[in-house]
Design brief:
The complex is a heterodimer of chains A (322) and B (250). Chain A is mostly helical and 322 residues long. Chain A is built from 13 helices and two strands; from the N terminus they run αααααβααααβαααα. Chain A has a two-stranded antiparallel sheet. In chain A, helix 1 packs antiparallel against helix 6 and helix 3 packs antiparallel against helix 4. Helices cover 35% and strands 24% of the residues of chain B. The chains are: A mainly alpha (322), B alpha/beta (250).
């Protein structure tokens, strides 16, 4: 652990974590409250990206429907809140359970397919949730729903921007920690082995489907956690949070940062939002309205990463230990 | 009379109009090497697929270790003591040789729904895995990526993985395929050393290896059993000589 700090990678990661931990103090000192809300969203998206990495990176399963868990987690909180149940102690477990259940259902069906079919079926299920969300007229339909933030009576006030940010950061670090342990556990070895050679793993006696399903449920639950946080961040839920482009963005973030790496999804999320934040105003300066199309510049950058940095941003930091 | 370890009765597999396995009945006794030979397309690999459970049989039964396993899934059959190697080398290429065998060991230590403990430092996995690697002569290559091993070494690694669960029966699909003379010689020695402890169903085209190792031989042609018997009986069998052995037996 101490030895890892002497490497450029270790120093970089440590510096990044210190910066992230100090962000609320910095934004207060420089009176940039908007930056804190961007930072909060990056941290929440990182949780979702780390969870997607569990199945996409370690499992080799390209799920194109991960944003659905933003929706399931978020709407579970939103619907309970709209019905007068404001306690986070009830909302959060219900939302996590709903996410896990949804993951179990779509996992059980979609994990019977492979490759492109898996991508398409996970996308289809995510679209299903999206349209269900749109159709919930009692809960705002397409316009979405303003909600109260989850209450943790006296323990923490989620309306306080800095407290909420730190809560999100702690949950992100816990997710990263768990993801790292998972990857090196017996379970993780089976998951990674099945990515490498499914036929061999079956012949060794592993019921591969069950392990993949379990990974899918774990990833979906953490995805739901990100949804809970996203709903609390804006005190608002809408179908837009689970649009298929969001699932695409999550895949881009994981690939950009480095699949099957510990901090890659975090690097990816920071880079993605930093580029979005920088490119939009720059393009708008060139011509009003062009900022909306920032991905015209981002796309070629992504192609460069795919061509020249196969392991994503993580691989630019040098060789990994273990 | 020894109870057979593996026996099939009138096993059938059809692919559309093609009868790939045609009423095959055969037995493997504990500790013996039973060789399965036959020209390409005779249905040998199909039969292995049915025995391991990756292919469903259309009719007939398979008994293994005293149980009817005809309808059991692959992982259950593996638990009962069945292990296989593949015609085309099948290892986990991105993992070290030691990791490969450690995973094979892990497959036999109950379920793997353990999420937190570091399996890469678990001596209950690494210890037995190192022993297996030593047993097949790969001890010095433990930390090498499987992809970086030579072809012959990868075949040895497959054997080490197959041995990890102390299987009662090894299904070996052309273990000498693509090997140099020297490498095959080493494999013959290795397999001979395992005889008695593990039953083996050996598919092999290298007739020198087959006759050097096998206790009994079954000849498969067009999915049917043409002949079955001791190496001497097979060597003397007129139809076998005509259909398959050709000059090799002369």
């Amino acid at each position: 652990m101490i030895g890892a700090l002497r490497t450029p990678r270790g120093l970089f990661t440590l510096a990044l974590l210190v910066l992230l931990a100090a962000l609320p103090l910095l934004t207060q000192a420089f009176d940039q409250r908007y930056v804190l809300s961007v930072g909060t969203r990056i941290v929440i998206w990182s949780i979702a990206a780390v969870s997607l990495n569990m199945i996409l990176g370690y499992g080799g399963l390209v799920s194109f429907g991960h944003a659905a868990f933003f929706g399931v987690g978020g709407y579970a909180v939103g619907i309970l809140s709209a019905n007068g149940i404001a306690s986070g102690w009830i909302q959060w477990p219900v939302a996590l359970l709903a996410s896990a259940t949804w993951a179990a259902i779509i996992g059980a069906l979609s994990l019977r397919t492979r490759g492109l079919y898996f991508i398409m079926i996970t996308l289809a299920f995510a679209q299903l949730v999206y349209y269900v969300g749109s159709g919930l007229d009692a809960y705002g339909g397409d316009d979405g729903l303003n909600i109260g933030r989850s209450r943790f009576n006296g323990l923490i006030n989620l309306a306080d921007k800095a407290s909420f940010y730190w809560l999100c950061l702690v949950l992100l670090l816990a997710t990263v920690w768990f993801s790292g342990r998972l990857a090196r556990s017996r379970f993780g070895f089976v998951l990674r082995g099945a990515r490498s050679n499914e036929q061999r793993m079956t012949a060794l006696g592993f019921p591969v489907f069950r392990y993949r399903l379990a990974a899918f449920v774990i990833a979906g639950t953490f995805g739901g956690l990100a949804g809970i946080l996203l709903a609390n961040e804006g005190a608002y839920v809408s179908p837009a949070m689970m649009a298929w482009m969001k699932s695409g963005d999550l895949i881009v973030i994981v690939v950009l940062g480095g699949t099957a790496t510990l901090f890659g999804p975090l690097y990816g999320a920071i880079t993605f939002f930093a580029l979005e934040g920088a490119l939009k105003p720059m393009l708008d300066l060139v011509h009003k309205g062009w900022g909306e199309h920032w991905q015209i510049v981002f796309g070629p950058l992504l192609v460069m990463v795919a061509l020249y940095a196969r392991g994503g941003i993580d691989s630019l930091l040098g060789r990994r230990h273990g | 009379m020894v109870e057979p370890l593996l026996s099939t009765q009138a096993l059938v597999k059809r692919f559309g109009g093609l009868l790939a396995t045609d009423n095959v009945s055969l037995e493997v006794r504990p500790g013996e090497i039973h060789a399965l030979i036959g020209p390409n397309g005779a249905g040998k690999t199909t039969l292995i697929g049915q025995l391991t459970g990756t292919l469903a049989s259309d009719s007939g039964t398979i008994h293994f270790a005293g149980r009817d396993v005809t309808r059991l899934p692959t992982h259950t059959r593996v638990r009962l003591g069945l292990a296989r190697s593949f015609q085309i080398t099948s290892v986990l290429r991105e993992f070290s040789a030691l990791d490969n065998v450690a995973l094979a060991v892990q497959a036999h230590q109950g379920h793997s729904f353990r999420f937190l403990a570091d399996a890469g430092r678990d001596e209950r996995l690494r210890g037995p895995a190192r022993e297996r690697l030593d047993a097949v002569g790969l001890g010095a290559r433990a930390d090498t990526h499987a992809a970086a091993l030579s072809h012959g070494e990868q075949r040895q690694l497959e054997i080490a993985m197959a041995l990890a669960g102390e299987p009662k029966l090894l299904l070996l699909d052309e273990p000498m395929a693509g090997m140099s003379v020297e490498e095959s010689q080493r494999m013959v020695t290795l397999l001979r050393g395992l005889k008695g402890r593990h039953g083996m169903l050996l598919i092999e085209h290298d007739m020198d290896a087959v006759f050097a190792l096998a206790d009994r031989i079954t000849v498969l042609v067009y999915g049917r059993v043409l002949a079955s018997g001791t190496p001497d009986e097979i060597r003397a069998h007129p139809e076998v000589r005509q259909a398959y052995l050709g000059e090799e037996a002369a």
